[in-house]
Structures are given as C-alpha cells and as structure tokens.
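Severity: low
Component: inverse-folding endpoint
Summary: output formatting inconsistent between runs
Steps to reproduce: submit the following structure tokens with default settings.
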C-alpha cells in the first residue's frame, strides 16, 4: 500500500449511465474516463471490487411497465453484464488486471460468481467486476453493491454519483438552498428519505454496519482522495 490509506478494500458502485456519457448504451470514451479513475485507486494498492448498474440500457421498474416485472428485471440484469464487459475492456486496455463474475452464469464471457474465488482475485490485485446484480428480480444493483460489499468484507461501499457531490436535504440541481451533509446516520437517511442508495440496500448496510460514502465520481481524483481518508462527499454510518 502506498501512503496513508483509509480503506484497504472497497466496493465501488457505478451506475450504468456512467458508461454512456448520459446517453444510451456504451460510449468507449466514457468507459475510458471511468477506468482512469479506478486506476488511480488501484495504483495505491487498494483492493477494488465494482458493482455496475444497467440503467443506460434498461431499468425493469421504469421501462418494463406493462410487462411481467420479473422478466423486465432479468433483462436489466443482462444489461449490467454488458456493462461489466465494457468496463473490463476499458480497464484491461490500460493494463489493470480484472475478472468479471456474474450472478447469472454466462460462462463463455465471464466467471460465475464464487465468493471465495472473488476474494482471492482481490487479494491478487485484480479488480473484480460483478455483473448481473444479485441475480434476483425486484431489487437493484444498489442491493447487489451492499450484498457483495458485505460478502467481500469491504471497509466501505462507495456510491459514485454524477455531478452531485454528496447527500443533500433537497435536490441541489433544483434547489440552490439545498444543504449538503458531511456525514449522516443510516437512520436519518432512511427516515428523511435521503438519496443515498435504495432502501433495501441501505437497510442491509445499516444492519451490518457497513459504511457508505456518496461522492461525485466525475471530479478527478475523488475516488483516490476518499481512499486516502480525505473528507469527500457524504459518509453514512451508524
Ligand atoms: N436488476 C435486478 N436485480 C438486481 C440488479 C438489477 O432485477 O439484483 C435489474 C433491475 O430491473 C434494474 C436493472 O437491472 O432496474 C438495472 O440495474 P439498476 O437499475 O440498478 O442500474 P443503475 O441505475 O445502477 O444503472
């Protein structure tokens, strides 16, 4: 490990929209920019696991209206696997060893999720990208982030946001008076309905006392700063 390090193993949650540059699908330029940020964290010697979303392609609850919800959600899970492969490509392009593990098995393109094997990859310095969410419908990749974070025994779940630098008491893009929290308790976030992660996921973090950091992924170096222990974004804890 290089320099002062606050978190030795982290779970980074990336939304699907980060891969699309806010449009649809995958933009190689956007995935490259993401990979550069992950690389800065990886170079510190920190173990990085990633859960990637699928919203740039499909969100079951939103796009699947009129469909059987479970079917719509399985489509979403498959979308996250496409993103996992794109992210893997971008990371390996800049020389970072990775493994993709999926909760729905597609052995031709990725390893199946095997907890102990994923931990071994992390210990060997490979970035592990989890695709397919939890493998179950009715939840989102936020729940996958909490679950895999716990299973990997990470020190924190890092919730990457786009152009929002933490948790506010109102939407800062609409209300200029909105106030940012430097830190928060799980209870406060749940009671006040604050935008940290979805409620199922947060309940899991609360129960297991897993710290969450909400931060702006698109301020260069932010991920590295958090790992070094700088106060960036909002810390959610007990
Ligand atoms: N999904 C699911 N189970 C999971 C993870 C994801 O059913 O464990 C489906 C769900 O339909 C979700 C979609 O996959 O809307 C894409 O994931 P998510 O919305 O979390 O992506 P993000 O918003 O992070 O890009």
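Observed output (run 2 of 3):
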């Amino acid at each position: 490990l290089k320099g002062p390090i606050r978190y030795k193993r982290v779970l980074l949650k990336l939304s699907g929209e980060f891969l699309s540059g806010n449009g649809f699908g995958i933009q190689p330029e956007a995935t490259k920019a993401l990979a550069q940020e992950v690389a800065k964290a990886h170079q510190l010697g920190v173990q990085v696991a990633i859960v990637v979303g699928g919203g740039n392609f499909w969100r079951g609850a939103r796009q699947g209206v009129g469909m059987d919800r479970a079917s719509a959600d399985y489509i979403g899970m498959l979308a996250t696997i496409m993103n996992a492969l794109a992210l893997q490509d971008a990371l390996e392009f800049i020389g970072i060893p990775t493994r993709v593990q999926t909760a729905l098995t597609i052995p031709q393109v990725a390893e199946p999720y095997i907890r102990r094997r994923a931990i071994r990859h992390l210990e060997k310095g490979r970035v592990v990208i989890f695709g397919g969410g939890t493998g179950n419908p009715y939840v989102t990749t936020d729940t996958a982030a909490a679950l895999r974070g716990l299973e990997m025994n990470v020190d924190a779940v890092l919730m990457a946001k786009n152009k929002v630098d933490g948790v506010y008491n109102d939407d800062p893009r609409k209300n200029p008076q909105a106030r940012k929290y430097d830190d928060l308790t799980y209870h406060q976030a749940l009671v006040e309905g604050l935008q940290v992660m979805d409620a199922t996921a947060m309940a899991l973090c609360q129960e297991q006392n897993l710290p969450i950091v909400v931060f702006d992924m698109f301020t260069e170096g932010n991920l590295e700063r958090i790992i070094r222990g700088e106060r960036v974004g909002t810390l959610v804890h007990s």
